[in-house]
Task: inverse folding
């Protein structure tokens, strides 16, 4: 499953919509995921890196305290700018990154397509 | 002192030069070659820039100073110009019946749902059983959250409303189905969801992963659902054809609705030959058009039926050729025509999500012989330019019919001898020349070459991007399987040290020299490869056979032993093998030329010009 490491706490916290949108994108593509809350104050890119290391599918998503999103594949050296969002991610961007995380696993061309 | 000469071949796309020294005993030492893009239209003074560049570079490679240049030899550029056009001859229009066949990647649920279309907002008020015995299909606009959609549908179902399927504007089908009490087929990503007719009988079908729908792609399935008689079934059958192969689809039946598969009156071509005339309707297809061309051969002109699309197409081609060669349209004579059957994806008129259907089309390449060549003007311009830039002693001569020069150049390929046939595969035309044992030369010029192949690839893949089509034509394909490797079309793998761009991930790419070009379509690698290869076959194999039949003794291909391929398209990675395969049954040895043993299929005419000049009696052999 895709590992989602998030610094956001609670379903009704600030930027809860970001998490919801990301997970919706992954679910729509039909790929399973697991969410882990990370208490430390860690940059989004590092959350993504750690998540990718932990995922048996080698794909991880980081959601930062500022609502930013980053998708990473363990094979890549550094997270790619095209797979990272602004802080916070808007609804369309968050949803698209969810889709793309799953599409990397499944081997489909990334959105926008 | 040897005579320093440079032979120059001005082609449609490239200008090639060959620098040589001709000794006093008539022997020739080739010293340098160059190739550059042709500037302006072949045979006009604008070519000067390209010629000057090619001459300068050839001399530089030879290590000869411009001041030592004695003669520049220009080919008598065959005054032929080619043009291209394409005309669709069928059209799919949906009138008042709605089909949704865009085949989104992630539909939801599975099976067939039949019911009356109801707006999402009206669902909470919908009465179970009030005239909706067959069921209800809910239409959900964009902007409705997936949780809300599922919640509302569940509430209706619990009230006893038979919701049999759903049509969504958002990309939410899987999300919605995962939250429903009962699984129903759901299609999503409908871009013009507001155009879906409401209050009408409709059917939604979703097949399992990797499968195709069975009912909506079957004319009799549609007849069953919508209770159609035989006449109505015939009229609706194009819908079934358009939806064949889809994983999901929707058909909404509206009263008095028809889907028409129309044959557009494309018009006819009037072919005039030296002794005969013929008229052929374009919609009869390429094979019949070419048979008609064959019957009236040799062709002297072609006109399209006025007031029809074909008429407009041909007169546009004539006008653009007239403009290019600066003649009157009335002076333009089309002397060869190549028709090729093709399919073009066209957006279906009346579709609701950008659906596309493959329409029959005919592509036409025409070749025009213009009035006079104007090479003398080019020669004067070249001489003035060369003298002004340091080649103070240079003279420019025009001589040598292109076909003869090509043959002489081809004969410098190791392993060749007269009699010999040369096939020059260019961008605008395919030319053939035969040199017999006694030295007589015959030549023929045909419409249809590299540019037509590119146009076919562009049209059949729906690219609308000729540059991309050119890349697909010239380079092998691969599919990016990860961020670091690409699987090539021959099954081998290429690895990259740096991660591939995200735009290339999981896409089919063309592996160009300077990097990979992602192909932004949903076509599989196999489909793109097939389109590429058949486009080359339908143009170059067809034209190779036509050309050889035109110049073979008594039209008999078995009387030809050797064919040498020249020109830019002879460098293509597939075209020579496709032609050789087609010629092998006639016992013909066909291979790519190797001019002077070093230049490959390039530089034949330029080298031939030099060779011919050396052989000419009266050539001053002292500078």
Result:
């Amino acid at each position: 499953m895709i590992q989602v490491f998030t610094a956001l706490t609670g379903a009704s916290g600030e930027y809860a919509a970001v998490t919801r949108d990301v997970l919706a994108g992954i679910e729509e593509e039909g790929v399973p995921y697991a969410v882990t809350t990370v208490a430390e104050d860690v940059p989004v890119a590092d959350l993504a890196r750690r998540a990718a290391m932990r995922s048996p599918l080698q794909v991880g998503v980081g959601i930062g305290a500022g609502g930013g999103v980053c998708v990473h594949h363990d094979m890549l050296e550094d997270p790619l700018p095209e797979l990272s969002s602004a802080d916070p991610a808007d609804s369309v961007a968050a949803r698209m990154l969810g889709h793309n995380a799953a599409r990397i696993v499944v081997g489909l061309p990334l959105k926008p397509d | 002192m040897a005579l320093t000469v440079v032979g120059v071949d001005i082609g449609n796309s490239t200008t090639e030069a060959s620098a040589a020294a001709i000794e006093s005993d008539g022997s020739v030492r080739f010293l340098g070659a160059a190739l550059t893009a042709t500037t302006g239209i072949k045979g006009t003074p604008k070519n000067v820039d390209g010629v000057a560049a090619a001459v300068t570079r050839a001399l530089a490679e030879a290590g000869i100073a411009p001041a030592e240049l004695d003669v520049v030899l220009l080919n008598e550029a065959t005054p032929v110009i080619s043009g291209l056009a394409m005309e669709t001859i069928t059209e799919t229009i949906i009138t008042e019946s709605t089909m949704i066949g865009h085949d989104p990647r992630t539909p939801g649920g599975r099976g067939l749902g039949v019911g009356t279309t109801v707006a999402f907002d009206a669902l909470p008020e919908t009465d179970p059983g009030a005239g909706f015995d067959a069921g209800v299909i809910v239409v959900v606009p964009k902007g409705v959250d997936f949780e809300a959609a599922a919640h509302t549908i569940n509430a209706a179902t619990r009230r006893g409303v038979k919701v049999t399927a759903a049509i969504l504007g958002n990309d939410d089908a899987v999300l919605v189905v995962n939250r429903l009490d009962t699984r129903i087929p759901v299609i999503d990503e409908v871009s013009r969801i507001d155009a879906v007719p409401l209050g009408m009988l409709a059917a939604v079908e979703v097949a399992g992963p990797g499968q195709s729908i069975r009912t909506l792609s079957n004319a009799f399935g549609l007849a069953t659902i919508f209770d159609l008689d035989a006449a109505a079934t015939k009229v609706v059958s194009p819908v079934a054809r358009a939806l064949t192969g889809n994983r999901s689809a929707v058909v909404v039946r509206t009263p008095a609705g028809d889907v028409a598969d129309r044959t557009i009156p494309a018009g006819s071509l009037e072919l005039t030959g030296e002794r005969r005339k013929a008229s052929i309707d374009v919609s009869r297809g390429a094979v019949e058009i070419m048979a008609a061309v064959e019957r009236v051969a040799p062709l002297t002109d072609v006109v399209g039926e006025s007031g029809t699309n074909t008429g407009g197409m041909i007169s546009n081609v004539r006008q653009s050729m007239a403009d290019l060669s600066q003649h009157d349209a009335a002076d333009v004579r089309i002397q060869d025509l190549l028709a090729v059957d093709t399919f073009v994806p066209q957006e279906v008129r009346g579709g609701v999500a950008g659906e596309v259907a493959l329409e029959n089309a005919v592509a036409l390449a025409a070749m025009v012989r213009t009035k006079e060549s104007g090479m003398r003007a080019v020669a004067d311009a070249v001489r003035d330019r060369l003298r002004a830039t340091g080649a103070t002693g240079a003279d420019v001569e025009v001589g040598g019919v292109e076909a003869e020069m090509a043959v002489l150049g081809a004969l410098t390929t190791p392993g060749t001898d007269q009699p010999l046939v040369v096939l020059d595969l260019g961008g605008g035309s395919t030319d053939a020349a035969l040199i017999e044992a006694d030295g007589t030369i015959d030549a023929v010029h045909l419409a249809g070459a590299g540019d037509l192949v590119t146009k076919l690839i562009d049209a059949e893949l729906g690219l609308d991007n000729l540059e991309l089509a050119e890349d697909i034509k010239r380079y092998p394909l691969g599919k990016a399987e990860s961020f670091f490797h690409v699987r090539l079309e021959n099954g081998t793998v290429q690895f990259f040290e740096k991660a591939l761009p995200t735009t290339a991930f999981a896409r089919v790419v063309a592996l160009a020299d300077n990097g990979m070009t992602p192909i932004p379509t949903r076509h599989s690698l196999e489909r793109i490869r097939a389109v590429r290869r058949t486009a080359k076959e339908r143009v170059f194999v067809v034209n190779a056979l036509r050309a050889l039949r035109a110049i073979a003794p008594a039209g008999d291909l078995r009387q030809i032993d050797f064919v040498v391929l020249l020109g830019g398209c002879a460098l293509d990675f597939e075209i020579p093998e496709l032609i050789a395969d087609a010629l092998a049954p006639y016992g013909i040895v066909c291979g790519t030329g190797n001019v002077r043993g070093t230049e490959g299929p390039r530089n034949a005419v330029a080298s031939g010009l030099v060779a011919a000049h050396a052989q000419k009696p009266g050539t001053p052999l002292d500078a």
Q: What stands out?
A: The first helix of chain A runs from residue 16 to 28.
